[in-house]
Design a protein that fits this description.
single chain, about 150 residues, about 60% helix
């Protein structure tokens, strides 16, 4: 790795390590629930049926709330999807698995996409857990940010 790449990786690590550390506390929960349904629907009691209201796992809501507080949120996440030609979940997972620290825009873009789109359509948050994107993001980021050698 060149000196410039090493300095860039160090700068990125120093800038985002606290954010990754904050979100890494959800790793165990994500590993247990990835691929599963984390939302249910409440439609009132037996006597009186209401419009179905989605109810989300409290850990999912906490994860999203903490993610929103981090510097990993990027309102221009659509640019990352366009530039990287991301069209499907498989594209997202492939990019995450092959990303390096210098590709922080990939992590920020994909995480932001799910968190920000979920603010208007909550089912997007549940999709991030069910399709494994949140888990892969956290696995890859923790591996890169807490590795002893600089990537």
């Amino acid at each position: 790795m060149s000196d410039t790449d090493e300095r860039l990786s160090t700068r990125i690590r120093n800038e985002y390590i606290k954010d990754v550390e904050l979100l890494s506390k959800y790793m165990n929960w994500l590993e247990k629930t990835s691929g599963q349904q984390v939302e249910s629907f409440y439609d009132g009691d037996e006597k009186q049926k209401l419009i179905q209201i989605p109810v989300y796992d409290s850990n999912l809501l906490a994860f999203v709330k903490d993610a929103r507080k981090t510097g990993l949120m990027d309102r221009n996440y659509r640019y990352v999807y366009t530039r990287r030609k991301i069209k499907t979940v498989e594209d997202e997972l492939h990019l995450i698995r092959h990303a390096h620290l210098k590709d922080i825009d990939v992590f920020k873009g994909i995480l932001s996409s799910y968190v920000m789109r979920g603010q208007t359509k909550g089912a997007v948050w549940a999709e991030g857990v069910k399709n494994g994107v949140f888990l892969e993001l956290m696995r890859r980021m923790t591996a890169l940010f807490f590795a002893t050698n600089i990537d």
